[in-house]
Design a protein that fits this description.
Largest sheet: 9 strands, mixed
Shape: globular
CATH class of the largest domain: Alpha Beta
CATH architecture of the largest domain: 3-Layer(aba) Sandwich
Distance between the termini: 83 Å
Oligomer: single chain
């Protein structure tokens, strides 16, 4: 058959390459497969411009195939290999979203350029197997289809030498056509990016666009080409003198203790319980990956319901428990939790705060405590080079020192997943705290780690019949929480780790209460971020397996929007507990449950009020006040308010039926506007470096 007879098949192959890749990009940027994704509303501009941007990218690869290879067979093979690479990239992006709940940015690679890069890679690969078990392999299907088309059209005729050498463009035409398509593709990409930048100019997105918005509006490959260039050349946003002055003026408003609710407009003075713990020690425990739904949760094992967190449940009788507290972490996970807890400022979401915004002197809890003659130190069971804590905790936050794996003097330590177990870690931290207490009051920030992924049985206890030292397993072998095998393994593992963490905290608190610190120490505990697992599935499938006398459990909703927003709210909800071991009927702060929405940005302010500290700036709200506020998730821009959740991306929302008349469309728009103002100011405050620069020898305290 003459080559002209195959022309239409070759064009079909090119068409299949384009259509299959466009389909993959659509699936990646919609919630058809990634159900937790809340894409921005697509207007006509976003749709057409993104198509042009990605078409330009694909045309560049087609041009390369023409310029590099002389035969259509080799060009088709090159395009097939490129499509396989693209398919793996789509697949990787989907896994990334599955783990982080946000789209990738090249700035996310910052952690791998730090001194703790090896540990970061270890975390990633340690969790990869669990992620692969629940991955969306359908993103590989378009590549497989193109491979099949290649085999049908080209590979099976590979022995026909005339066919293998045939070409639709020959000689100088190959160079002309290749160069033209290359230039045209580049122009399409550049034009798409230019149109995108012009379209968002003078809008909120000019300073607050996320990778998802960029991909939806400029095209996946066009946007990431731009993102890579800005990352490689370290392009930083620059503000005019007028803009800097506006940021300073807005910052000055935070010197006022009064808080204006973004929901009601009411003014609150936020001075509840001022100084009731002045002079007391503070043990602030940040608990790895603990969601609020585990507090009070009971699981039916055999004929009885077994408490998952009996020790945390027990201390609630002497605690203020905030059960509507929300994590505000971005890509930095635990490090972002530390950043916001110490400073009261949100992370931007797409960048690591401790690596990108670490050159200025923030107002921090350690410095406020040290102003009152406290000794302040942080501790962690991992290496001090991870997140550069050994350096950044003293320099950036103002701790006297960071106590970590390198500085611990332990004999025959019992390790879990390569880290010191939480029980021994917390007890050792309490020993250091007690020693420092001889010289004055102490502020200790302890960061646990045993509940970190991967949620499988630790290698260190293999063959012992139990996952964790000194504690029986929670579940018998082959226990079923959900019929999804891979998810069941993760959930069993997560709940076993939570159960151990609760056990370790219980042992540590007993140890504390038997020490000289007992009568003069307040303990504050909170989860740093959620577990990142679809834990709601076990409540949907087997609701009779669970009971909870403390917190309401999630229930299935047939409405997709209702269900997904409820699930994301559940997985962002973490416990926050203020525990006074000496609490009595005469204590000024009585045990209670507070269900108003609160977030990490309020932690520093709340602790400052309780301990009589004197901040210059008042970020967030006093969590013990009656202030109504909002909290947002920097990753996906979900907004949490009392009785309402809004997606700051898709603009979908859910609200309690009893609040339908209160949360009118106008009220919802007003809340959205307040969120946008807050995020815009918060991020500009970090990016502009308004605060005084760090001194060469550390922070001024």
């Amino acid at each position: 058959m003459k080559d002209t007879g195959f022309k239409k098949y070759k064009m079909i192959y090119l068409g299949a390459f384009l259509v299959l890749n466009f389909l993959s990009i659509y699936l990646l940027t919609s919630n058809f497969l990634l159900e937790d994704l809340s894409p921005f509303p697509r207007d006509f501009f976003m749709l057409v411009n993104s198509l042009f941007g990605d078409l330009g990218f694909f045309l560049i690869f087609i041009a390369l195939s023409v310029l590099i290879f002389r035969s259509d067979y080799n060009r088709a093979r090159f395009i097939m290999y490129a499509s396989i690479a693209f398919g793996l990239l789509y697949f990787a992006f989907s896994i990334y979203f599955q783990y982080y709940g946000m789209f990738f940015s090249f700035y996310n690679l910052k952690t791998f350029s730090s001194s703790g890069a090896g540990d970061a890679a270890g975390f990633l690969f340690g969790s990869l197997l669990s992620l692969l078990k629940q991955a969306n392999y359908i993103f590989l299907v378009p590549s497989i289809v193109l491979v099949i088309v290649f085999i049908l059209i080209f590979y099976r005729r590979r022995k026909d030498e005339k066919f293998r050498k045939s070409s639709l463009v020959r000689g100088w035409n190959r160079l002309y056509v290749g160069a033209f398509v290359m230039v045209f593709g580049i122009l399409l990409m550049v034009s798409s990016l230019g149109a995108y930048k012009a379209n968002i100019s003078d809008t909120w997105f000019e300073d607050n666009a996320t990778p998802l918005h960029g991909v939806q509006a400029a095209g996946l490959f066009a946007y990431y080409t731009y993102d890579a260039i800005t990352y490689i050349f370290d392009e930083q946003a620059e503000y005019s003198d007028q803009e800097l002055e506006q940021i300073r003026q807005r910052l000055d408003t935070y010197m006022n203790k009064d808080y204006v609710s973004p929901i009601t407009g009411q003014i609150y003075d936020n001075e509840d319980y001022r100084g009731i713990y002045s002079g007391k020690n503070l043990l602030l425990i940040q608990i790895e990956s603990m969601n609020n739904f585990v507090i009070g949760l009971k699981v039916k094992i055999g004929d009885e319901y077994v408490e998952l967190t009996p020790n945390l449940n027990r201390i609630l009788n002497k605690s203020v428990y905030l059960n509507n507290y929300y994590t505000t972490v971005g890509i930095g996970n635990t490090s972002d939790s530390e950043f916001t807890t110490m400073t009261g400022l949100y992370p931007t979401g797409t960048k690591y705060s401790i690596f990108e915004y670490d050159k200025v002197q923030y107002q921090t809890l350690p410095k406020l405590f040290k102003d009152e003659n406290y000794i302040a130190f942080s501790s962690h069971a991992n290496t001090g080079i991870f997140y550069d804590r050994l350096i950044k905790h003293p320099e950036l936050y103002g701790f006297d020192y960071h106590y970590c794996k390198e500085t611990m003097d332990l004999v025959d330590p019992k390790m879990i997943h390569g880290w010191l177990n939480d029980e021994d870690f917390l007890k050792d931290t309490i020993d250091v705290m007690e020693s420092e207490y001889q010289n004055g009051p102490v502020f200790t920030f302890a960061i646990t780690i045993s509940c970190h992924m991967p949620y499988n049985a630790p290698e260190e206890t293999a063959g012992q019949g139990q996952w964790f030292y000194g504690k029986d397993n929670l579940f018998p072998k082959d226990f079923v929480l959900t019929d999804y095998t891979s998810l069941n393994e993760q959930l069993i593992g997560y709940l076993e780790h939570v159960s151990y963490t609760d056990y370790a905290i219980g042992k540590a608190l007993e140890y504390l209460e038997a020490s000289s610190l007992a009568d003069d120490t307040i303990v504050v505990l909170y989860g740093d971020h959620g577990c990142g697992i679809d834990a709601f599935e076990m409540f949907y499938e087997n609701p009779d397996l669970f009971a909870n006398d403390i917190n309401e459990m999630i229930s299935y909703s047939a409405n997709v929007t209702q269900r997904k927003l409820s699930e994301r709210r559940m997985l962002s909800n973490v416990p926050f507990i203020i525990y006074d071991p000496t609490s009595s009927e005469s204590s000024p702060l009585q045990p209670q449950r507070i269900s108003l929405v609160r977030g990490f940005n309020s932690t520093s302010r709340t602790i400052a009020e309780l301990f009589g500290l004197n901040p210059t700036y008042y970020f967030g709200v006093n969590a013990l006040s009656s202030s109504q506020t909002i909290v947002y998730n920097p990753r996906n821009l979900d907004i949490f308010a009392d009785g309402m959740t809004i997606s700051g991306q898709s603009l979908d929302y859910i609200r309690d039926e009893s609040l339908v008349d209160f949360y009118t469309p106008a009220k919802i728009d007003a809340v959205l506007e307040e969120f946008r103002k807050l995020k815009d100011f918060n991020d500009k405050l970090l990016i502009s470096k308004i605060f005084p620069p760090l001194q060469e020898k550390g922070l001024e305290n």
